[in-house]
Design goal:
Number of helices: 10
Bound molecules: flavin-adenine dinucleotide, FE2/S2 (inorganic) cluster
Radius of gyration: 24 Å
Number of strands: 36
Distance between the termini: 38 Å
Oligomer: single chain
Structural class: alpha/beta
Largest sheet: 6 strands, mixed
Strand order of the largest sheet: 1-2-3-4-9-10
Low-confidence stretches: 1-5
Length: 505
């Protein structure tokens, strides 16, 4: 998605400001000519970079400065204040960087600096094969080139579209509020210019770990020196009568999202089975299209298992305010032509059914190749599997989490992208330990929920602020330690909590 560029406003930084205009560790935004600029200070050092996040346009001055980096308040992307490089997804594009001049006890933002070049040639000229063109696979390929890797990079993707903004498939894109050109992570030229061989509609069926080659469904084979498995996860399909009909959809890919959009244009009523994040985002997007939407789910409160009781009630409330009709503590037992039958024998008339009942990691390739499996592909802190030189990242990988000491497998966009980058660095021999605190966001109408850490259970939950007023930070604690935090419109606190979790006492 392209970031909307801010119009210049505020202080004219090109005309110079007093050093005291920015506190130590602080940031202000202003402009230099037509460009919106962030001026940051660390001790006596000043930095000037673009003020607008290159992901979805978040205001970087409202984020958090950490060392010589800044984190975006909206979805926690990270930028170098020294170069403008996007050093942490979900952003990949750099922001501009300006030269600073200090003169006459003033700080001036001078000319824009040339963008940083790819780092010098890294790693041996080997052949890297990446299986999967989603968040993790794309991030790995991009990072290999950013680090100056000069060998072959081939991405095999079963998808028919080049890497795209998967989270948007249930949000603005599905709601009809995001144009097509927001979806690709990079334009087609990028792959050509970076000599990344992106092979779409190319499913890998086997990995020969000893002979070091992969075989594709169409019979081709490709040798590799280093391999990344980034095959993501598969939506779970319902095993009930009628679930295989054409008006019953799952949502994983851009093609799935387009199929739902096409069906919605002919439909008036929809039943969403599952009150998962994706299920609820689909419900919101179909309401935005003016459809009658029913949500069927076995739990008594949506998302209670992940966010707790109070959040669950709040989320149910906002969806009801927008006209969603819930059928909780219910399951679907059959789907007939135009109805969904529930366990209590009620029938819901519908033209369109979307099933959002979770996913399972695509581990079959790894299993067949004899890699160690543990409810996902088991990897170490360097994201290397049980076979040397073969890595796994994203929804398929289970890795040792440094905060909790537990092995985690998480289905988050930002985690997948950061793991893809970490695996790429390790293929280049950088010995990069993956220790990022997990992060995800979810959007329900005008309410964004940001979540850092991971808590599948907790001893207590402390809520600062008020969920109903849409102004809160909830901390989930286990054994006296904060293991996760969910927030609504408390972006700075969410970022501070993330940093605190990176450096537990
Ligand atoms: C609709 C939707 C909304 C979401 N919203 C959010 C959100 O708001 N926030 C959040 O944090 N997360 C969200 N997620 C989850 C997030 O998208 C995933 O965690 C992330 O995409 C995982 O990245 P990945 O690279 O591991 O897998 P994927 O992005 O799923 O990519 C897997 C790739 O592997 C390919 N592949 C699979 N098998 C093979 C094979 N055998 N050969 C070749 N290619 C193969 C697939 O075609 C695909 O290209 C959402 C997911 C969906 C579906
Ligand atoms: S807008 Fe900055 S990370 Fe999304």
């Amino acid at each position: 998605m392209s970031a909307e560029q801010s119009k210049p406003k505020g202080i004219d930084l090109a005309s110079g400001v007093s050093p005291d205009a920015v506190s130590d560790g602080g940031m202000i935004s202003g402009h230099a000519g037509e460009d919106a600029v962030l001026l940051a200070r660390r001790g006596d050092e000043f930095f000037a970079i673009g003020a607008t996040c290159s992901h979805y346009g978040g205001p970087l001055a409202e984020g958090l400065m950490v060392g010589d980096t800044v984190r975006c308040p909206w979805h926690h992307a990270r930028f170098s204040l020294r170069t403008g490089e996007a050093i942490g997804p979900p952003a990949f594009n750099p922001v501009s960087c300006w030269r600073i001049e200090r003169r006459d006890n003033k700080v001036f933002v001078r000319e824009k600096l040339a963008p940083a070049k790819a780092r010098g040639a890294a790693g041996k000229a080997e052949r890297v094969v990446i299986i999967g063109g989603g968040g993790a696979g794309f991030a790995a390929a991009e990072m290999l080139r950013r680090e100056g890797f000069a060998g072959d990079v081939t991405v095999f993707s079963a998808d028919d579209a080049a890497p795209y903004d998967r989270p948007n498939c249930s949000k603005d894109y599905l709601a009809g509020n995001a144009p097509e050109d927001w979806m690709p992570l990079r334009p087609p030229d990028f792959y050509r210019d970076q000599s990344i061989s992106l092979e779409l509609r190319s499913a890998v069926t086997d990995i020969d770990v000893k002979a070091r080659h992969v075989t594709l469904r169409d019979g081709r084979s490709a040798p590799f020196d280093k391999l990344l498995l980034a095959t993501g996860a598969e939506p779970i399909r319902l095993d009930i009568p009628g679930a295989d009909q054409p008006h019953v959809h799952v949502l994983r890919s851009l093609a799935d999202s387009r199929a739902i959009i096409a069906a919605a244009s002919q439909a008036r009523r929809a039943v969403v089975i599952g009150a998962s994040f994706i299920g609820l985002e689909v419900a919101a997007s179909l309401r935005a299209r003016g459809m009658e939407v029913h949500v069927v789910a076995p739990e008594s409160r949506p998302l209670e298992r992940i966010l707790g009781r109070d959040f669950g009630d709040f989320i149910r409330g906002i969806h009801e305010e927008h006209g969603v009709i819930f059928h909780l503590e219910q399951t679907a037992t059959a789907i007939n032509g135009g109805t969904v039958t529930l366990k209590n024998r009620a029938t819901l008339p519908t033209d369109l059914v979307v099933v959002g009942v979770g996913v399972r990691p695509r581990i079959e390739l790894a299993e067949r190749a004899g890699l160690k499996i543990d409810r996902g592909i088991a990897v170490n802190q360097y994201l290397e599997t049980s076979a040397p030189g073969i890595y796994a990242a994203g929804d398929v990988a289970r890795w040792p989490d440094s905060l909790t000491g537990e092995d985690l497998r998480i289905e988050h966009w930002v985690v997948a992208e950061r793991q893809g980058q970490a695996a790429a660095r390790n293929m280049l021999g950088q010995g990069y330990r993956f220790s990022d605190v997990p992060f995800f966001w979810s959007q329900h109408y005008d309410v964004p929920i940001n979540y850092v850490g991971h808590a599948d259970r907790w001893d207590d939950l402390i809520i600062d602020g008020d969920i109903k007023s849409r102004d809160c930070l909830a901390r989930y604690r286990r054994n006296g330690k904060v293991v996760a935090a969910a927030s609504i419109f408390r972006d700075l606190e969410s970022l501070k909590q993330e940093v605190a979790m990176e450096h537990p006492a």
